C-alpha cells in the first residue's frame, strides 16, 4: 500500500486531479515562483533550469526538489521578496543575480531556522523598538516576522501608488520603493526605521555568498564572481605568493567528503 | 531543593584561559578540582569539517545563546538600560574553553608603564595630566613581577613571534618563530620603515611549527586556512584551552570537568567572611546542586565574574552618586573607540586575502603606551598599529566598498566584486580608561531565565577615548598613504559608545590593586576580606592596556594559581598586605 503511494508520482497527481489542464502548472503552483519570474523579466534569463542538478534532487520541471516555500505561504509575498533580492543583487555582466543564485529560497529557509525565529536572541520584555537607535535588535517580532511585515508593506505601497504588484513594476520603480524602505521613510510594523531593509539586504547578500548547503550561491555562482575558493585544509604553500590565486570553488560538501 | 555534593578542594567556574590555567596548575599540584562550565562539551572534532562562514561569522554559532541571559547597557547613569538582544551585538564565549577557543591569537604583553600608569604619569607629566573624571590606577604589580607569568603562559600556549624592537628585552625568546610574511604585511612594514617606525611580525597563538608545550601537549603547525577568529581550530594549530590546559588538567584523576553546569551563586558565609562553595543548575536536567569547596575560583569572564559576586551579595557595590564601593567600579574595555585607523583601496594590487590566520599580521609599538612624548598630547596611553590578514570568506569580502558606493544594486555589485581583494585596513588598538561614571551593577528591570537580574553596563567615552582615537586615525592614515593605496579613507571616530559588544575585550569591575579602597582583589586576584575567593580574568584590569588582553589574563591566571597554592599550603589568610592610601579608619 505504502509502496503504491510512493509510486504515485506528482505527475500522476496532476493528471488525475486534472490540475494540469488548468494551465497553472508552469506558473505559480509547481513551476517554481522563481522560474516564473525569469519569464517576466529579461528573456535571456529564461535559463536552463536545473541543468546542473543531480538526478534524484531535481523535480520533473528540472528545478531542485528543495526549491519550495516553507515559510512564505502567499505566493505574492514570495514573488515580491524575490524581486526585491534581484534589485539588491542584480544579474549583470559579472554573472547571475540573486534569483538565479537561489537567494529567495535561502531566505525562505532561514526564516524557518533559528535565525529567522530569533531562537538565540534574548526575547524577554519589556520591548520598545523605538527607545534607542543604538541598541541593536530591540524588536518584539522575529526576523521572519519582520521580513513578512516588510514584504506586505512593499506590496501595499506598490498597489496603492502604482496599481500593481511590486514584482510587476519596472526596475526603476522597484528601486525607488526600496530606497524609501532603506531611508526609513516607510514604516514597517514592529520594526525601527530602516531595519527591515537592512535585514533584507544582509540576508540577500548571505544568500548570494554563503555555502551552497544553505540553498543559495547556486553552483558556486556567487563564489565564482567574487573569486572565493571556499574552505580548504590550508594555504601553507600559497600564503606567501605574490600573485592572486584563482582557484575553482569547492564547498562544505566536498570539504567534508560527502559519502552519506 | 539543591542537592549537596561531596566537598572538594577547589571549585573553578569557567574553562577559558583563566579557568583552564588555574585548573591545570591546581590539578598538577594534586588538589581535588572540579571545574564547572556553563556550556556544552566541545572536543576537537566539533571543529573539523565545519569551515562555514555563515554559521560562525554571521550566525555566531560558537557564541553564547542569549535566550536565557545577556547584559543590559546604557550610556548615562540616569538612563534606562536596554538588553543587548542579538549575538550580532553581544558576543560572549561559551562551551569548553569559552571565548579562548575562538580568539584570534594576537599576542602582546602590556608595557611597564601600563602596570604603573598612575604613578609613572605623575612622575613624568605631573598630576595635572590626569583628568579629574578618570580613575587612573596602578595595578598593584609591576612588569618585572609579571614577566615570569607571561613567559609561563606564552610557553604553555606556544606563541610564535619575534622581539619587538621597542619592547623590553625578553628573558627568553618566544617559544616559536614568527608566522610567514605575505605581500600585504610586507607592504605595511616597508611603508612603516620608510616613515622611521619600527614594524615587526605580530606574535601569534597560531603555531608556526609543530610544538610540544612544557605540559607535554602537542600542537601542530598552522596551515593558514583562514577559519580562525570566531571559529574553533580543526587542527590543534591555534592555541586554545582544549588543546592545552584543559587537556592537561584532564590527565589527572583529581580533576573533573562538568559541562552544562550553570553557576548561579557563590555560597558565602557572612560571619566567617568565607566562600563555602557554589550553587549551580545542571542545564540538562534543570536540577540544582551545591558544590562545597575550600577555595572558590571565579573565571567566568568579566561579565559573569562581576554578576556572580553581586548576585551572591559579596563585596561592596560601587555607587556613582556617592563614589563609594568597589565592586563594579572601573568597568572598562576596548569598545568602538578602539580599532579605528585607515582603509586603503588598491587599483593595481590584488592580495590573496581569503587566505590567512587569526594572528597573521604586522604591527608596531612606536605609538604604544608611553613610548612617545605625551607632553603636548590631549590623552594618555597608546596602542599598537596593526595590519592583520585573518583570511576572509565571501560574505565579508563583499563588504569592501570605497565611501560613497551604494550598499546594494548594480553599482554595489560591480564595485564590491572589484575591491574584494584590493582592500587593506590598518588600525590602532588604543588604551581604554576608567572613569567614575562607568561601572556595572544589577539591572532593575530585566532578568535571566531564572528571574535573576541581568548585569547592567553603564559606559560612555571619556575625552581620552575620543582623542586617542583621532590620534590613531591620523597615524594610520599616514602609513596607508605611504603604502600607496589609490584611495585612502581615514576612519571616523564615533561620537559615543554604541552598545556593541563584539570584540571580547571587556574588562574591569573586580579590579586588582594594592588598596582595598579602590580595588576588589589583590595582586594574586584574591578578594580582599574573603581569603578563599579568587576572581580571575580581565575583570581585574583597572584600565584596559593598549593591546589585546588575553596574554595578560593568562599571565594573571598563573599568578592566581600560585597564590591559591600558597594560600592552601602555606599561609592561610591574605597573601598581600593592603596598602591603604586613605586614613578613613
Ligand atoms: C572574536 C574575538 C577575537 C579575539 N581575539 C583575541 C586576540 O587575538 N588576542 C587577544 O588577546 N584576545 C582576543 N580576544 C579576547 C579573548 O577571547 C578573551 O580575552 C579570552 O578568551 C578571555 O578568557 P577568559 O578565560 O577570561 O574567558 P572565556 O574564555 O570566555 O571563558 C569563560 C568561561 O566561563 C563560562 N561561564 C560563564 N558564566 C558561567 C557560569 N555562570 N557558570 C559556569 N560557567 C560560566 C563560559 O561559558 C566560558 O566558557 C578575542 C575575542 C573575540 C570575541
Automatic annotation (TrEMBL), chain A:
The keyword Oxidoreductase applies. Keywords: Membrane, Oxidoreductase, Transmembrane, Transmembrane helix. GO terms for molecular function: gluconate 2-dehydrogenase (acceptor) activity. It comes from the Bacteria. Its EC number is 1.1.99.3. Residues 38-67 are annotated as: Disordered. The chain crosses the membrane at residues 12-38. Residues 44-62 have a biased composition (Low complexity). This is Gluconate 2-dehydrogenase gamma chain. It comes from Salinicoccus halitifaciens.
TrEMBL record, chain B:
Residues 203-332 form the Glucose-methanol-choline oxidoreductase N-terminal domain. The keyword DNA-binding does not apply. Keywords: FAD, Flavoprotein, Oxidoreductase. GO terms for molecular function: gluconate 2-dehydrogenase (acceptor) activity. InterPro entries: FAD/NAD-bd_sf, GMC_OxRdtase_N, GMC_OxRtase_C. PANTHER family: LONG-CHAIN-ALCOHOL OXIDASE. Belongs to the GMC oxidoreductase family. This is Gluconate 2-dehydrogenase alpha chain. It comes from Salinicoccus halitifaciens.
Amino acid at each position: 500500500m505504502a509502496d503504491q503511494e510512493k509510486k504515485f508520482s506528482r505527475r500522476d497527481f496532476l493528471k488525475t486531479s486534472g490540475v494540469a489542464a488548468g494551465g497553472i502548472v508552469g506558473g505559480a503552483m509547481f513551476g517554481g515562483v522563481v522560474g516564473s519570474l525569469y519569464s517576466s523579466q529579461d528573456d535571456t534569463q529564461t535559463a536552463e533550469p536545473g541543468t546542473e542538478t543531480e538526478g534524484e534532487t531535481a523535480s520533473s520541471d528540472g528545478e531542485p526538489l528543495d526549491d519550495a516555500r516553507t515559510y512564505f505561504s502567499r505566493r505574492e509575498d514570495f514573488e515580491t521578496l524575490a524581486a526585491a533580492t534581484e534589485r539588491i543583487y542584480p544579474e549583470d555582466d559579472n554573472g547571475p543575480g540573486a534569483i538565479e543564485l537561489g537567494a529567495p529560497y535561502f531566505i525562505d529557509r532561514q526564516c524557518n531556522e533559528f535565525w529567522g525565529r530569533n531562537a538565540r536572541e534574548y526575547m524577554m520584555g519589556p520591548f520598545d523598538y523605538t527607545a534607542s537607535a543604538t541598541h541593536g535588535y530591540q524588536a518584539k517580532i522575529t526576523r521572519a516576522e519582520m521580513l513578512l511585515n516588510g514584504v506586505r508593506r512593499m506590496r501595499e505601497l506598490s498597489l496603492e501608488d502604482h496599481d500593481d504588484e511590486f514584482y510587476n513594476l519596472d526596475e526603476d520603480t522597484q528601486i525607488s520603493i526600496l530606497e524609501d524602505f532603506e531611508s526609513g521613510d516607510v514604516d514597517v510594523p514592529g520594526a525601527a526605521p530602516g531595519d527591515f531593509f537592512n535585514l533584507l539586504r544582509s540576508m540577500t547578500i548571505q544568500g548570494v555568498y554563503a555555502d551552497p548547503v544553505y540553498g543559495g550561491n547556486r553552483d558556486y555562482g556567487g563564489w565564482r564572481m567574487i573569486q572565493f575558493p571556499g574552505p580548504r585544509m590550508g594555504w601553507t604553500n600559497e600564503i606567501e605568493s605574490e600573485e592572486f590565486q584563482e582557484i575553482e570553488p569547492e564547498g562544505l560538501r566536498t570539504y567534508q567528503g560527502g559519502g552519506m | 531543593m539543591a542537592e549537596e555534593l561531596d566537598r572538594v578542594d577547589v571549585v573553578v567556574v569557567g574553562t577559558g584561559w583563566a579557568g583552564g590555567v588555574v585548573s591545570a596548575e591546581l590539578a598538577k599540584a594534586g588538589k581535588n578540582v572540579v571545574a564547572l562550565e556553563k556550556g556544552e562539551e566541545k572536543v576537537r572534532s566539533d571543529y573539523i569539517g565545519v569551515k562555514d562562514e555563515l554559521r560562525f561569522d554571521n550566525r555566531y554559532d560558537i557564541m553564547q545563546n542569549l535566550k536565557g541571559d545577556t547584559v543590559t547597557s546604557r550610556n548615562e547613569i540616569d538612563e534606562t538600560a536596554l538588553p543587548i538582544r542579538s549575538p550580532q551585538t553581544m558576543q560572549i564565549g561559551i562551551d569548553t574553553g569559552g571565548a579562548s577557543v575562538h580568539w584570534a591569537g594576537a599576542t602582546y604583553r602590556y608595557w611597564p608603564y601600563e602596570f604603573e600608569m598612575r604613578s609613572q604619569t605623575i612622575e613624568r607629566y605631573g598630576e595635572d595630566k590626569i583628568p579629574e573624571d578618570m580613575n587612573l590606577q596602578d595595578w598593584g604589580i609591576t612588569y618585572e613581577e609579571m614577566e615570569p607569568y607571561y613567559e609561563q603562559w606564552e610557553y604553555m600556549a606556544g606563541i610564535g613571534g619575534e622581539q619587538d624592537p621597542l619592547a623590553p628585552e625578553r628573558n627568553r625568546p618566544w617559544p616559536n618563530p614568527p608566522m610567514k610574511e605575505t605581500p600585504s604585511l610586507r607592504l605595511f612594514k616597508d611603508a612603516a620603515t620608510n616613515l622611521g617606525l619600527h614594524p615587526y611580525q605580530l606574535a601569534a597563538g597560531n603555531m608556526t611549527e609543530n610544538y610540544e608545550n612544557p605540559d607535554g601537549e602537542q600542537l601542530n603547525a598552522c596551515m593558514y586556512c583562514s577559519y580562525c577568529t570566531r571559529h574553533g581550530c580543526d587542527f590543534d594549530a591555534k592555541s586554545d584551552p582544549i588543546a592545552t590546559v584543559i587537556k592537561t588538567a584532564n590527565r589527572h584523576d583529581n580533576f573533573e570537568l562538568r559541562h552544562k553546569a550553570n553557576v548561579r551563586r557563590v555560597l558565602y558565609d557572612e560571619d566567617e567572611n568565607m566562600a563555602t562553595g557554589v550553587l549551580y543548575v545542571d542545564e540538562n536536567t534543570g536540577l540544582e546542586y551545591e558544590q562545597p569547596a575550600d577555595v572558590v575560583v571565579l573565571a567566568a569572564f568579566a561579565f559573569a565574574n562581576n554578576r556572580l559576586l553581586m548576585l551572591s551579595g559579596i563585596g561592596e557595590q560601587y555607587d556613582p552618586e556617592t563614589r563609594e564601593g568597589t565592586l563594579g567600579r572601573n568597568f572598562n574595555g576596548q569598545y568602538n573607540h578602539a580599532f579605528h585607523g585607515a582603509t586603503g583601496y588598491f587599483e593595481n594590487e590584488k592580495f590573496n586575502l581569503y587566505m590567512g590566520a587569526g594572528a597573521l599580521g604586522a604591527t608596531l609599538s612606536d605609538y604604544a603606551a608611553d613610548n612617545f612624548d605625551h607632553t603636548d598630547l590631549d590623552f594618555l596611553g597608546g596602542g599598537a598599529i596593526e595590519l592583520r590578514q585573518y583570511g576572509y570568506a565571501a560574505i565579508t569580502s563583499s563588504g569592501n566598498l570605497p565611501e560613497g558606493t551604494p550598499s546594494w544594486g548594480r553599482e554595489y555589485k560591480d564595485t564590491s566584486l572589484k575591491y574584494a581583494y584590493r582592500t587593506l585596513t590598518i588600525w590602532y588598538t588604543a588604551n581604554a580608561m576608567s572613569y567614575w561614571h562607568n561601572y556595572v551593577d544589577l539591572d532593575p528591570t530585566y532578568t535571566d531565565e531564572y528571574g535573576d537580574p541581568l548585569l547592567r553596563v553603564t559606559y560612555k567615552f571619556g575625552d581620552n577615548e575620543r582623542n586617542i582615537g583621532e590620534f590613531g586615525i591620523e597615524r594610520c592614515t599616514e602609513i596607508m598613504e605611504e603604502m600607496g593605496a589609490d584611495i585612502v579613507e581615514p576612519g571616523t571616530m564615533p561620537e559615543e559608545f554604541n552598545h556593541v559588544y563584539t570584540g571580547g575585550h571587556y574588562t574591569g569591575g573586580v579590579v586588582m590593586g594594592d588598596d582595598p579602597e579602590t580595588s576588589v582583589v589583590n595582586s594574586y586576584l584574591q578578594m580582599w576580606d574573603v581569603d578563599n575567593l579568587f576572581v580571575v580574568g580581565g575583570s581585574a584590569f583597572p584600565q584596559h592596556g593598549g593591546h589585546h588582553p588575553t596574554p595578560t589574563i593568562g599571565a594573571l591566571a598563573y599568578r592566581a594559581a600560585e597564590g591559591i597554592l600558597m594560600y592552601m599550603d602555606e599561609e592561610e589568610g591574605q597573601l598581600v598586605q593592603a596598602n591603604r592610601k586613605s586614613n578613613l579608619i
